[in-house]
Structure formats: C-alpha cells, structure tokens
Amino acid sequence: MRRTVHEQRALVAQGIEHEHGEELEAISEQLDEHPEVYDLVHADLVAGGIDPDKGRRGMSAEQVLRAVIVKQMNGFSYKELAFHLADSITYQRFCRIGVAEQVRTAKTLQKNLKRVRAETLEAANRVLLAGAAEAGIEKGRMVRVDCTVEETNIHEPTDSSLLHDVVRVLDRLMAQAKEVGFPIEFMNHTRRAKRRNLGAFNAKNAKQRRKAYRDLLKVTEATLEYAARALPVLKQSHPGLDMMDMLIGDLVAADLEHYLPLGRQVVDQTRRRVLEGEKVPVADKVVSIFEPHTDIIVKDRRETLYGHKLCLTTGKSGLITDCIILDGNPADSTLAVEAIERQVDIYGRPPRQASFDGGFASKDNLAVIKGELGVEDVVFAKGRGLKVSDMAKSTWVYKKLRRFRAGIEGGISFLKRCFGLGRCLWRGLASFKAYTWASVLSANLLMLARHTME
C-alpha cells in the first residue's frame, strides 16, 4: 500500500528549541505549502505498474522526500540514515514518522529513495522556485552562471589499475557461478594481475613498465576469453541446479555482458597508449568499469577530474535556479545562451541582468543574449575584446555585476561542503543525476527556510 501522504497522521514528538530543529521546522513548512511535490514523488514510487492500494503499508511519498533531504543535508550513508531516523526524535518529527511507527531498515530506505528520479527532483525544485518568486524571495531578475565539476566515486584511473579491475571482477563473477554448480572452466589470475599492476606502478624504467604491461595484458585477455566462453554456459539449464542457482546464473550472465565490452575497451586503449605510443582520443577512453559514464574533465591544464561538468545558475537570494548536467567537457562559451534560455523557461521571461565567468565570453553570446533573449545587462568577468559599454549601460553596473558574479563561488562551495555535490556516491548515470538534484533541492530548501526565519 502506497500513499502520497498518510491520511491519518501518526502521533509525532514535539519539536525542540535548537537552531537545527528550527531550520527543519521551516523546511517542513515550505514543503507543506507545496503539496504537489509529494504527488511528483508518489508517481515515481508507484511507477512500473505498482498498485498503491495493495500490499503492506509502505513509506509515503512525503516520508521518502523528507528522508532524501535529511540524507543530503547530513551526508549520511543509508545505514547512518536508518540509525538517525530511529534514534533522533527531531528527524522522526521532520520525516513524519510516528512514535509507534516502525523505522525502515537501511535496505528499505535505499530501495525507496533510489526510486525518485532526477526529473522529479528538478520539477520539485521548479515548484519551490515558483513559490519563492511569489513570496518575493527570488524573482530571477538578476542571475549569475558558472561551471564546476562533480566527481564520480571512482579511484584514480591508470591503465594497469583498470586492467586489474577487469581481471578481479570477471574472476569473482565466474567463481560465484562455479560455486553454485555451473560447469565453468577458468584459471583465476587475480593475484597475478595484482602483482603486475603493482609492478607497472613501481617500475624503475620504461623497459620494466612495458614488460609488466605485456604480461598484464596477456592475463586480462585470457580472463576475457574465459568469461566469453562461460557466458553461453550460464544461459543453459543444467541438471542438479535448482531455481535459485539458475537465478544466480542469470545475474552473473547479465554482469558478464556488462563488463565484457568494457574490459575489451580497456585492453584496446592500454595497448594503443602503452605499447604503441598512440594518443587515444577522450571519446575512446573508459576511466572506470564501474562508472563507465564518467567524463574526463581537464580544468585549464591545472588538474584532471573524473565525473561530470555542471553548469549552475543562482539568483540574488543565493537559490540555485538551475543546474545543467553536461555530457563531456564542452567549452563554457557554448553554454551561456542555453543557461539564459532555461531561465526564460523557468520564469516565463528573461532575467534583467546576467553575469558570467570570463570563459563564457564571446561576441555571439553577447549578441544573442542581449538582442534575441532581451537581457538588458550581460557582463562577463573577462571581456575578451568586448567593450564595457556593449555589456552594461554604465561602468558602475559593470563593476556591480562583476562583484555579484563572484558570489556564486561561495554557493558552489556551500553545495560541495554541506550537500555532497563534490563527489557523487551513487552508482550509474541516472543515479548521478538524481543525487545531484537531491543536493540542489536540499540546499534550496535550507536557504528558503533561512530566508523565512529572518
């Protein structure tokens, strides 16, 4: 049984006089003023043909959304979230968990929270922005845009470590299938791959490194061949295996089908890079077999990050009015127009003033944003050949918007330090996007609460 909001409210504990408790109460009021966000979450929870009127009483959409907020605000793991929901009267009150109601386990919390899609959280954020505009907190008339990188939860990629990952994962999967009775023949090369990985890392010269890589490539290709031969065996029925054993075989087969092409890609890029000395294009590289969607982001030749580039837009109030999760590492100058177009979509009209980092500057961007989209003042932190008179109506306005743009750096730092936006801990691209929007939504709710508490 699944409900948007439980019709009969459970008895909940009284709030406490504490700054954090008062913030949670203010966030709770913001959510209750916009009950349509619960309907959005409820649609995700019952997606896939689930009948909300059947089965045991599950978490309501209201409880799920509030649990998402608690998790992101505190950086809890699911085990920590389950503990604090069971232990804290304040969090039970915020999540509308009654004093006699069973607190869900970490596994149940994960199952429920991961059903909420990124699109749902983005739509909920737009509902809150509409409420903030109506209340006069953020009308979207003055915006600033900048980019940052959110990393995926992977180790620093090297060719040897990726090859080692391929061998140990495939060997583990095949050993799991063989243990339940599937007639799979393979040689476990995990220990050998680990030694060659360390040998390549600690090699004193190029000759030793190439020797270690040749052997590591050899055992990786052998393991890939074992896995390819095991795949059809796992899809066949075998005497002596029960239904549970066959289910394990199906799961292992699905994992092998996922990791085999990634393993072959790792072998190919390593052979080209290390043995043939070829410069492999970024589009042909995989930096993790666990998070293959990860992009390689090089920041001004200073550092290399692995994750996804985000284009963030904030308003005068500090609220994040938009977040674009980008594919690859496009130049900032290609994002300026889209960022303003999305503001038009959110607010129904363009902002009056917009401020950008210097990387967004171009004459074409200035012409489109001012001429076609109707923004009065468009300031880039570095003009790159643009005149101040072309960007703003006066030098005073230009300097004011440049100073205003600098404030987004603090907003990005706030998101990364307090809401986990620096590194996504959820697996998969869809979960990465949901995690990102959960951080943005939670941050906006806290800022809205603080505005109403002033």
Main attributes of the structure:
Nucleotidyltransferase, domain 5, 16 helices, alpha/beta, 7 strands, 454 residues
Written account of the structure:
Strands 1, 2, 3, 4, 5, 6 and 7 form a 7-stranded mixed β-sheet that branches. Helix 3 (61-74) crosses helix 16, helix 8 (159-179) runs antiparallel to helix 11 (243-275) and helix 9 (190-201) runs antiparallel to helix 10 (206-234). The chain has 3 domains: 19-116, no CATH class; 135-154 and 292-436, Nucleotidyltransferase, domain 5 (2-Layer Sandwich); 159-284, no CATH class. The chain is built from 16 helices and 7 strands. The chain has helices at residues 19-33, 36-45, 61-74, 78-87, 89-94, 106-113, 118-134, 159-179, 190-201, 206-234, 243-275, 336-347, 363-372, 388-391, 395-419, 429-453, and strands at residues 142-152, 295-299, 303-315, 320-325, 353-356, 377-380, 423-424. It is flat and about 70 Å long. Strand 2 (295-299) and strand 3 (303-315) form a beta hairpin. It is an alpha/beta fold.
**Estimated share of beta-strand residues:** 5-15%
How much helix is in the residues?
55-70%
Average pLDDT figure? 92
**Tally of individual helices:** 16
Order of helices and strands: HHHHHHHEHHHHEEEHEHEHHEH
Structure classification: alpha/beta
| Low-pLDDT windows of residues | none
- CATH class categorisation of the largest domain: Alpha Beta
Number of strands: 7
Looking at CATH, which topology of the largest domain would you report? Nucleotidyltransferase, domain 5
The CATH homologous superfamily of the largest domain: Ribonuclease H-like superfamily/Ribonuclease H
Radius of gyration: 26 Å
Write down the oligomeric state.
single chain
Q: N- to C-terminal separation?
A: 40 Å
- Biggest pleated-sheet summary: 7 strands, mixed
CATH architecture level-2 label of the largest domain: 2-Layer Sandwich
Count of the domains: 3
Overall 3D form: flat
